[in-house]
């Protein structure tokens, strides 16, 4: 339904595996084929999807560089520091977002 409502966007999801894997996603990344639990991008018209049940979705936006990130934060990922690892990946591209 989201794809019908927002046809200008490409939606992409990861095969979430309760890990600390952080991937860069772009318009050519296949939907639901890459293994990981966080992804980030600077692509326009790309929607990063995170699927949750009892885990927490975390979304980040860095306004200067327009980088977005989506994190699937389950207990294993949180214990493996997936949120700071995602921030580190984004920081390496955009500068410091830890103050946001």
Short description:
The chain is of the alpha/beta class and 100 residues long. Helix content is 22%, strand content 29%.
Structural descriptors:
29% strand, two-stranded parallel sheet, 22% helix, four-stranded mixed sheet, globular, 100 residues
Strand order of the largest sheet: 2-3-6-5
Oligomer: single chain
What does the main sheet amount to? 4 strands, mixed
Number of strands: 6
- Basic shape: globular
Give the number of helices: 3
| Helix/strand class | alpha/beta
The poorly predicted ranges are: none
What letter string, H or E per element, gives the SSE order? HEEEEEEHH
Helicity level, as a percent range?
A: 10-25%
Binned strand content: 25-35%
- The overall pLDDT average reads 93
CA distance, first residue to last residue: 31 Å
Can you give a write-up of this model?
This protein is an alpha/beta fold and 100 residues long. The chain has helices spanning 2-5, 75-79, 82-94, and strands spanning 10-13, 22-24, 38-41, 46-49, 56-62, 67-73. It contains 3 helices and 6 strands. Strand 5 and strand 6 form a beta hairpin. The chain is globular.
Outline the fold blueprint.
Blueprint: H1 2-5, E1 10-13, E2 22-24, E3 38-41, E4 46-49, E5 56-62, E6 67-73, H2 75-79, H3 82-94
Parallel strand pairs: 1-4, 2-3
Antiparallel strand pairs: 3-6, 5-6
């Amino acid at each position: 339904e989201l794809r019908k409502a927002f046809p200008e966007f490409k939606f992409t999801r990861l095969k979430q595996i309760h890990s600390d894997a952080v991937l860069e996603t772009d318009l050519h990344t296949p939907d639901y084929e890459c293994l990981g639990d966080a992804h980030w991008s600077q692509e326009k018209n790309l929607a990063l999807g995170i699927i949750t049940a009892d885990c927490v979705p975390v979304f980040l936006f860095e306004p200067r560089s327009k980088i977005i990130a989506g994190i699937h934060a389950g207990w294993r990922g949180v214990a493996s520091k997936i949120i700071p690892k995602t921030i580190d990946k984004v920081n390496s591209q955009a500068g410091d977002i830890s103050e946001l």
